[in-house]
Amino acid sequence: MWLIWGDGSSAYSLAEYDTFKRHNLPVIGLIGNDACWTQIEREQIPMFQDDVACPLEYTRYDIVSQGYGAKGLEVGDEAQVEEVLRAAQKIAETDAVVVNCYVGKSDFREGSLSV
After folding, report:
1. Which pLDDT value is given to residue 46?
2. How many CB atoms lie within 10 A of CB 19?
3. What DSSP character marks residue 52?
4. Rounded Cα gap, residues 77 and 18, in angstroms
5. Measured between alpha carbons, how far is residue 19 from residues 33, 40, 51, 81, 89 in Å?
6. With 90 as the cut, is the pLDDT of residue 85 above it?
7. 12-55 pLDDT, tens per residue?
8. Separation CA 3–CA 78 (nearest Å)
9. Which residue pairs, CB below 8 angstroms and at least 24 apart, start in 19-22?
10. Can you give the pLDDT at residue 50?
11. What percent of the chain has pLDDT over 90?
């Protein structure tokens, strides 16, 4: 099973890796890490001319998952994507894993509503 998150939203349920480990559920979590609540920021800046509380740190979510007993992998550049995702699939044959994938900013979903 795959979970696909942005870095901000992953914080709501990343602790479930503890559950995945305790119940031997081999889940792959792919986190697109742009160090920002980008979906919120897209509306917030035009409305309030301020990005307060939107920027995040480039957190090592792969290391966070290891704290819950799972495995963690990091994608540092585009050339590694396929190799790291294949490694995650191999790990998921027996274990839960988080892939921390650094992504750039884009205008994807520009104009969509944030709830």
Report:
1. 77
2. 13
3. T
4. 28
5. 23, 29, 34, 27, 19
6. yes
7. 999 999 999 999 999 999 999 999 887 776 777 677 898 787 78
8. 20
9. 20/68, 20/70, 20/96, 21/68, 21/69, 21/70, 21/95, 21/96
10. 84
11. 65
Averaged pLDDT of the chain: 89
Q: Both tokens of residue 49?
A: 């001319």
d(CA 41, CA 52): 9
Structure tokens at 114: 């944030």
Beta strands in the chain (DSSP E): 2-6, 28-33, 71-75, 97-102
Domain 2-102: which CATH number of 3.20.20.190, 3.40.50.1000, 1.10.8.60, 3.40.50.970: 3.40.50.970
